[in-house]
Predict the 3D structure of the following.
Amino acid sequence: MPSETQLKSHGGPARPLSAVGATAFRGAIRVPGDKSISHRALIFGALATGETRITGMLEGEDVLNTAKAMAAMGAAVERDGRDWVVRGRGTGGLVQPDGDLDFGNSGTGVRLVMGAIAGHPIAARCVGDVSLSSRPMRRVLGPLSEMGLLTEPADAARLPMTLKGSDRLVPMTYTLPVASAQVKSAILIAGLMTRGATTVIEPEPTRDHTERMLSYFGAEIDVGDTAEGRCIVLNGPAELTGRPVHVPSDPSSTAFPVAAALLVPGSDLTVQGVLANPTRTGLYTTLREMGADLTMENVREEGGEPIADVHVRASSLKGVTVPPERAPSMIDEYPMLAVIAAFADGTTRMEGLGELRVKETDRLAATADGLSANGVDVSIDGDALVVRGNGGAARGGGTVATHLDHRIAMAFLVMGLASERPVTVNDATPIATSFPEFEDLMTGLGAQFSPCEARA
Ligand code: S3P
């Protein structure tokens, strides 16, 4: 069982931080492991028999909360040197937790674990921080309750709530009404504990780590294309066997040093071993369209996932239109892209961003507010974000409210590295949910941060 200090949830006072400038970002770095893959390795390890050794797992608060939840439901989860080792209970083997399961800030953690709880005859109360407690859960609870999950209160839509699973779950066929890998994954995970075929159809492809890893752990899972979209069929009950998992660097965390290197003159940076799964690389496609000197080098495969080294040099950028169908492959990267767009020449229009409204905060509003506070010409047009760049350094000088959102915090700190005046975020603590090394890593590359009193 991981120790309390390893698993501490962030809380306490806000920590304002300013980004005041940077020297050129040069050299080769690695960023921490992919958050999506880390969550899944812990959950599938706990549902497998035998040992799952996880190398390169992200030790951010979100993932550590998932580790703690799986340990509370009977899996043995331990740090072993730099690896994490999970000894699982087998599908159907999770036990009733003694206390609340606290998922902190993590929508992925709680929604995927809901799928696991659903297939066990246990009751578990799930809680989270203020941000997570305001996020919609019906998108997952709707289909899971059709399979047999009960909640208390019966019509629960947000945390906290108690989930009452069952060992008599029925499989279902479900077409995703929103492009969400979390919803897809929760249903497939519940399907592991049913008798028969659980089918998920996704009209727009979303990240496919669940399908890849479940197949790697031995589940019978078929993926095909149909007229309605990608169709994933899982045959239950499934037996999973623990396997070693190597977690590649997170392309969403990579976005921050890459953006800094693009914007800070003279930079030439390589981020090594980055997950290059095409369901995750929309930002990199977009940056190349904007004229970025960015290449994916040394493309190879490790542990069933493509990885590459991302090589980027400071570049002059131009505005582009980012089509809505690209949104799922870069859904977490829009705050960073919007900041980059402020430095580009011309207008960048990012379309199909409705899902940003239900992330750790309303990211569409938080991004637009942060840009305006720093003198950028920005507007929201329906579910599109429109940024009119000035082809040079953004003005900066503003204070940005992060609303417990790690990516808002990091995106605007990157802005301050290249803007005319410093940019302040009112609270940098959420960064620890996904990228605890962010400040040290960026400082080592040439970023200058300064603690300060936020004005707003
Ligand atoms: C994730 C899926 C995405 C993403 C989140 C991680 C996952 O959410 O925003 O950070 O690991 O499945 P949605 O699937 O709800 O879009």
Summary: Confidence is low (pLDDT under 50) at residues 1-10. The two ends are 40 Å apart (CA to CA).
